[in-house]
Amino acid sequence: MEKVFRLPDLGEGIHEGEIVEVLVRSGDSVVEGQPLLIVETDKATVEIPSPFTGVVRTVHVEAGQVVHVGDPLVTVLEPGEKMEEPPRAPESPAETAVPQKPAMEALPVPASPATRRLARELGVDLRRVRPSGPGGRVTAEDVRRAAEEAAKAPKRPPAIPEVVAFPSREEGAEEPKGTPSEQEPVAPAVAVVGRPSREAEDRVPLKSVRRVIARRMAETWARVPHVSHHEGVDISELERLRQEINQESTDPARHLSLTPFLVKAAVAVLKEFPYFNASLDEARQEIVLKRDYHIGVAVDSPRGLVVPVLKEADRKSITELAAELRALSQRARSGELTPEDVSGGTFTLTNIGALGGRGFTPLINYPQVAILGAGRARLEPVVVGTLEEHTVTVRLMLPVVLAFDHRVVDGADGARFVNRLKALLEDPKRLLVSL
Predict the structure, then answer these.
(1) Coil, helix or strand for 366?
(2) In degrees, to the nearest 5, what angle opens at C-alpha 251 toward C-alphas 246 and 255?
(3) Which residues are known catalytic residues?
(4) Regarding predicted confidence, which is higher, 141 or 373?
(5) CA-to-CA distance for 375 and 230, rounded, in angstroms?
(6) Burial of 261: CB neighbours in 10 Å, binned 0-12, 13-18, 19+
(7) What would the pLDDT profile of 60-93 be if each residue is shown by its tens digit?
(8) Residues 130, 249: one domain?
(9) CA separation (Å) from 256 to 247, 261, 324?
(10) Is 206 exposed, middle or buried (0-12, 13-18, 19+ CB in 10 A)?
């Protein structure tokens, strides 16, 4: 009896995915738990294991195809059940003359999803890579080495375009009459063959993570009335504290960045303003206040923008958050995030300070209610005092922005939220007390 395996529910908010690679073909024997396909979603790249043991009868999908939850992927026959072979058309002489590829050529190469993605990005054929991993598994280093060898290999010189001469007119033909302006234009005597015309544009398929990002951003912008509140925060004292803490560590890789401090400050303010740690149930017309504080942090990865989530950020110290964020960021850049890593967020932080920028307006990570953004901190002159008596001092100023859903909270609420955040970041002692 045949069994149809359909795309299962891959987690929260995931309704579709793109087939990255098909690991089996018709006639292959599979066991329960064996990977059948690699699927890339907006959250992660995952291997889809087989729920059955048997023989693959039909593969319904191919690489590059977008599938939705419930779509058929593979049909599997029970062990011992014979697969009916479709009648073959008589082979033509031309078909029999074509040499067939060895059967091993079509089998999948053992490699992790991250390694397969790296191979696609570098244009490396995994079947041409010498494996060094256990059991003949191709590693990321094998792929990079193959790409370097291919780059060093001598390239063939470009083909010289063929030049074909055409007679201007047939022999014995009469000379055209009339003045030169009255004569018909004469075709050029020389034509260049084989030189392709220059394209005026390139077209790149909108696929995988970029397609999902495009759809979700358009949906967010269309459904949510965004309001943004901007402010400058004096983090001079916080920066001195951060540098002092980092000087005590001999490992630069474990130094604290500004982001975990922003996360802890945001959690403290969210406890005071719970409507920013919420979502809107439009169907039931209810505001859902979240009791957990799962803070998503936007990460720039080769796959595009991903948002791994720091779960229960209110229960972790700044150093614990920093360590977890380093691990999540590394997995994001290597393409090894799991659906669990990117699900369940209640509030989002995006810090583009490393890239620069005095300010920006982030889009809310729907269905969340708000997102906090931070730009690059700069030394700026700040006037202190009154209109009559004042001084100018240099302070480290951080541009921040809070974007929020105006259906749930008002502009005055956003201003109060940012003012409280500003007070905590400008006074590290007050921040520590609020933890």
Answers:
(1) coil
(2) 35
(3) 406
(4) 373
(5) 11
(6) buried
(7) 998 888 888 889 999 998 876 666 655 555 555 5
(8) no
(9) 10, 9, 12
(10) exposed
Whether the CB-CB separation of 236 and 378 falls below 8 Å is answered with no
Secondary structure (DSSP) of 83-105: PPPPPPPPPPHHHHHSPPPPGGG
Tokens representing 348 are 């989002």
Clarify whether residues 120 and 256 are in a common domain.
no
Select from 116, 148, 180 the last residue of a domain.
148
Same domain, 137 and 240: no
Condensed to tens digits (0 to 9), the pLDDT of residues 16-30 reads 888 888 888 888 888
Task: Look up residue 228 and give its two tokens.
Answer: 């943004």
With respect to residue 214, please indicate whether it lies within any of the assigned structural domains.
Answer: no
State how far the Cα of 230 lies from the Cα of 216, in Å rounded to an integer: 24
Residue with tokens 């599997």: 76
For 335-345, what is each residue's pLDDT tens digit?
888 888 989 99
Size of the chain, expressed as the number of residues it contains: 435
408 domain residue, yes or no: yes
For the whole prediction, is pTM greater than 0.70?
Answer: no
d(CA 31, CA 54): 6
Q: 128-139 burial string, b = 16+ CB within 10 Å, else e?
A: ebeeeeeeeebb
When divided into structural domains, the chain yields a total of: 2
Q: Looking at the structure, tell me whether residues 249 and 133 fall in a common domain.
A: no
At residue 103, the pLDDT reads 45
CATH number for 387: 3.30.559.10
Residues 6+ apart with CB under 8 A from 201: none
CA dihedral sign, ordered 161, 162, 163, 166: negative
Residue with more model confidence, 161 or 31: 31
- The answer to whether residue 146 scores a pLDDT higher than 80 is yes
Q: Is the Cβ–Cβ distance between 314 and 271 less than 8 Å? A: yes
**Token pair for 116:** 């397969």
> Phi, psi (5° rounding) for residue 262?
-65, -40
Peptide bond into 252 cis (omega under 30): no
Nearest-angstrom CA–CA distance, 430 and 102:
70
Query: Rounded to 10 degrees, what is the CA torsion of 357, 358, 364, 370?
Result: 140
SS3 118: helix
CATH number for the domain harbouring residue 75: 2.40.50.100
Whole domain around residue 11: which residue ranges?
Answer: 2-79+103-148
- Chain centroid to CA 180: how far? 64
In a domain, 208, yes or no: no
Question: Among candidates 11, 47, 8, which has minimal Cα distance to 30?
Answer: 47
User: Phi and psi for 90 in degrees, rounded to 5?
Assistant: -60, 140
Residue 153: inside a domain: no
φ, ψ at 343 (rounded to 5°): -115, 160
